[in-house]
Amino acid sequence: MKFISIIVSIGILISLNSWAEPRSPMQRMRGQGQIDSSTLVHLRPAITDFRGESRNQILLKSPYRSFPDSNLMLDLRRSIVLIDNLEEAGLENQLSERIKQVVNNQWNNSHKFKKKGLQNFYILANFVHHINEDSDPSFFVAIIPKTAAIENIIFQVEWFGQGVGAHTQIRFQLDQAIVAIPQWDDEYTPQIISHNGRADLVYSLQAARVEGGEEDWSPTLGLMGEYANALQFFSVQSKAKKQIYANVVNQYRINGLSSDQKRSIFLQALNSSHELQETTIYNTVFNSCITHSLLSLRGSFAESSKTHTGLSQINPVWFNPYSIVDRLESAGVSLTALETMNTEFKKLGYDRHGSIFTEALRQQTNSYKLLAPLQDSLLKDERLESFVRKMALFIVDEEITASQFNDFLKVVKEHYGQSDLLKKMDNKMKVLFAEIENFWNEEFQGRSIEDFFKAFYAMETQDGSHVEPL
User: Fold this and answer.
1) Element spanning 231, H or E
2) Which end of the chain has fewer CB atoms surrounding its CB within 10 Å, N or C?
3) CA 34 – CA 39 distance, rounded (Å)
């Protein structure tokens, strides 16, 4: 606890994007280099922790604490690199020449590289795209003209086919197609990136593990500092291919945005990805896909004259996927529910094997049936959010590890309600159990904590069929 207090008190000295050694654009494009483990995550506005203290800074444990000599696994998860000078970027000659050719020729000779360089384009390395439905994802250098307008911004919620929870991401629909060049290719053959005649991009925070870390994401590991964040840009085709066969992706168009406001959100995403790189630490409650999506939407509207009433009222500490759409609408964000991405791509012929997942199929899963009775009565309850936030802060402050927490859950599951429960725990776990019960009782007087443990076991296993009632 003292360690956390000391670090927070000197937090201003810790740079959010400090490196053990600065990485060149080429290193970032190749996923090379280790990141410094000092990462300070700022929460705004301030929250009140379980001791009643106001806090706007939390030091999240880095994955390098558990794996000090490891590198992040950045083979498929990398933030973008914005390139504004080919010479300084140090790209391979053939790739640089191909970029110049595309810039000179793709837009009807209206732009000449010799004269204007890259100043009229956003050049994004580490852009993820599938060349076709049967190919694997790979990295491209995307070339986006700055004249391209952002036609629509769509908030997406990807509901997991098994287990509890969801992933969120932001979809940007442009008014024209763009060109992308494979980053590593003998020919560097340009590809037209188009969906229904226009570029369609998805911005998504993805948890990146370290070498030796757990391969599969879980909400519990997400509380323990086991991952860093990669802030990625995908083609919508690439994201759809990964998501629609196992999960359901709901879509909500954000209404009432001016052209300048849409561009501001798009630039906020581009710059955040480029500047933060993979220096922020993932946390299920405090720094996740949901909280980052909210920060991206809130963006410059919070302290700007270009205020959009709804977006400026977004609270970036919201983290609950079950209530996030309701929260956005209650803040004044006007949303229009669209067809799911699953249905959209089924119409485009992506269901040739009859394997696209649907909401009807999701509702037949064991995990959905188990949690459906709790959806409105508990999972959307603001008191649950307060309870989980208190518990997460306690876990972060006390530096409880994933193995300790899993051992704790196992003991609770096997001995809850029995006289020997506390005897099976060490002192640290006894304190954790007492705090969890206190937090629960503060928010849910007269309601059994068994409801929480049932939901948590389902979330942790990501499969309701493995959840045994307490």
Assistant:
1) strand 227-235
2) N
3) 13
In 185-253, alpha helices (H): 219-223, 236-243
All residues at 6 or more sequence positions from 420 whose CB lies less than 8 Å from its CB, including other chains: none
Q: pLDDT per residue over 393-448, tens digit each?
A: 999 888 888 888 888 888 888 888 788 888 999 998 999 999 999 999 999 888 88
Label residue 188 left, alpha or beta by phi (over 0 means left) and psi (-120 to 50 means alpha): left
- The pair of three-digit structure tokens given for residue 118, joined into one six-digit string: 């890259």
pLDDT in tens, 84-135: 888 888 888 889 989 988 888 766 555 555 566 788 899 999 999 987 667 7
Residues 117, 120: Cα–Cα separation, whole Å: 8
DSSP state of 425: S
Residue with tokens 């969890």: 436
User: C-alpha angle with apex 375: 371 to 378, nearest 5 degrees?
Assistant: 105
Q: Give rounded-to-5 percent helix, strand, coil for the chain.
A: 40, 20, 40
45 cis-preceded (ω within 30 degrees of 0): yes
How far, in Å, are 99, 105, 186, 187, 333 from residue 190 at the CA level? 9, 12, 12, 9, 38
* Range 440-443 contact pairs with CB under 8 angstroms and sequence separation of 24 or more: 440/387, 442/387, 442/390, 443/383, 443/384, 443/386, 443/387
